Structure formats: C-alpha cells, structure tokens
Amino acid sequence: MVYAVVRTSGRQEKVEVGSIITVNRVSGDSTGKLQLPAVLLVDGDKVTTDAAELAKVTVTAEVLNDLRGPKIVIQRYKNKTGYKSRQGHRQDLTRLKVTGIK
C-alpha cells in the first residue's frame, strides 16, 4: 500500500493513487495537471520523511473541476445600539484526482 501526505493550500492531505480531494482554488498547467510537494511517503513498510529523498518524489494530480463551497453567513450584532451587520462568503475550491506517486 503506497500513500503520501502532501502539502496544498496551507493544509496537509493524505492521498493515494486514484483518490479525489477538495482543496482551496489552485490552477494547473494548460493540460490541467499539477504536482504536489510530498511531506511524507509510505511505501509498504518503509516510511520516508527525509527532505532530500522527498525532493525526488513526485505526486501528480489532475484538476477535475472548480467549484464553490457552502455559504457561510457572518452576522454581527450589538445589543442596545441598533448595530446589525450581515455578510456571506463562499470559498473557491478545486477538486483534484491523484494520478501518480513516483
């Protein structure tokens, strides 16, 4: 069983070949492919955390689609002053499919 922990969008995700992850909006190259930096690699019983060896590891992913996250409502209210404020936010997201770990 081969899997890797990659860093993307300020977070770390555990990925295997064929797994689909949702991360903050990233853009690939013209073909929709991108490479993710590995933080940890598990290949069977061998666990790799050395930075020099991880520099040789490439985790490739394919951009499936761009989407928006759920709406988050931000409300502020101050009692007895009549102050009310309401704001909404939807995060831009990208769905990725991991195509290879080498």
From TrEMBL:
Keyword annotations from UniProtKB, A to Z: Ribonucleoprotein, Ribosomal protein, RNA-binding, rRNA-binding
Gene Ontology biological process: translation
Domain of life where this protein originates: Bacteria
GO MF term list: rRNA binding; structural constituent of ribosome
KW RNA-binding (keyword) present: yes
Pfam families for this protein: Ribosomal_L21p (PF00829)
Entry GO terms, CC: cytoplasm; ribonucleoprotein complex; ribosome
NCBIfam families documented for this protein: L21 (TIGR00061)
Family: Belongs to the bacterial ribosomal protein bL21 family.
Entries under HAMAP family matching the protein: Ribosomal_bL21
UniProt function note: This protein binds to 23S rRNA in the presence of protein L20.
PANTHER family in UniProt: 50S RIBOSOMAL PROTEIN L21, LARGE RIBOSOMAL SUBUNIT PROTEIN BL21M
Subunit description: Part of the 50S ribosomal subunit. Contacts protein L20.
The protein's name: Large ribosomal subunit protein bL21
Organism for this UniProt entry: Leucobacter chromiiresistens
Gene (UniProt): rplU
